[in-house]
Amino acid sequence: MSLITFELNRPMDFIGLGRLCIDLNANEIHRPMEETRMFTKYVGGSPANITIAIARLGLKAGFIGRVSDDQHGRFITHYLEKEGIDTASVITDKSGSVTGLAFTEIKSPTDCSILMYRDNVADLKLEPGDVREDYIRQAKAIMISGTALAKSPSREAVFKAVDLARKHNVVVFFDIDYRPWTWTSRDETGIYCSLVAEKSDVILGGREEFDLLEAPFGPLQQDDRLTAERWFAHHAKIVLVKHGGDGSVAFTKDGQSFTGTTFPANVVKTFGAGDSFAGAFIYGLMNGWDIARSQQFGAASASIVVSSHSCSDAMPTAEQIQAVIDKHSSN
Ligand SMILES: Nc1ncnc2c1ncn2[C@@H]1O[C@H](COP(=O)(O)OP(=O)(O)O)[C@@H](O)[C@H]1O
Ligand SMILES: O=C(O)C[C@@H](O)[C@H](O)C(=O)COP(=O)(O)O
Q1: Host domain of residue 240
Q2: Complex-level ipTM
Q3: Where in this chain does the record put each Carbohydrate kinase PfkB domain (predicted)?
């Protein structure tokens, strides 16, 4: 029997919740930001990227979020619509908020960083009233981004969404997605993200992100299995710890673990790996694949995106991902 069960008779497969932003990725790669003058604009924000990945793979996706009432907000909404993502719960914020920006610096294939501008951002203006029970109950799964917990009223909107999802058997994915720019302290991050992790079915994060959740409550486990067991004592069925170029380890509540390897890539930049991995991994689970195959699909997708300039635009189709797997299994 499968560890997590998706309600198959629902019209929508997946809802993303949280940040709808813009990435400005340096065109002049292998240069520090101080010397970079040209950037290309893409839709960004980790939960947006994951939802776009899932839509490209052919699932029916929607999004719950707020965008700014300006050209950038309209750019994002139009892009989601072009990708076939339902925007009925993408609300235009009228409070004078702005779109969050992520400037990416690509100094080398291994030395990349992000500079975020996140004052008065529209995504954190999401209100509990924007989260509709009838919207959530028609979906099989929802993905919560931890960054949506950084401020009220978005924080309360997340708790409402998670409770409604649990009430209607909508599988809750939680991506810790730590971005320091909008939080006031690491303790605040750890405590609020832990509260949602406790209620989630599947938790995804990097080693340092899981450390952040453990830090306010005691000594760090510093061991992926012990970390996973902490969440299995709550509601989680799958805990996946991402390890960058070293792959990932997935743990399941029934005591199994799966080590995911990586695929070779002509790395342009490292960001986008986690989002493409998550989109393809979730797609695998939603197709009823086992964890190892889903992990492999995620890793192959990530190898395509780290070899590209963008995150959202570069999200591959299922055929493109399968071609990578086939190429390497025939070698
Ligand atoms: N340099 C790389 N080459 C190929 N695959 C990679 C590389 N970096 C990451 N990946 C793949 O992407 C997955 C997620 O990457 P990771 O960097 O841990 O996530 P995040 O971007 O959220 O920090 C990894 O488990 C691996 O499969
Ligand atoms: O999440 C953001 O606001 C920025 C993203 O769009 C960005 O491209 C990125 O950092 C991707 O995150 P990752 O997949 O966790 O590397």
Answers
A1: 12-20+46-97+120-329
A2: 0.98
A3: 18-317
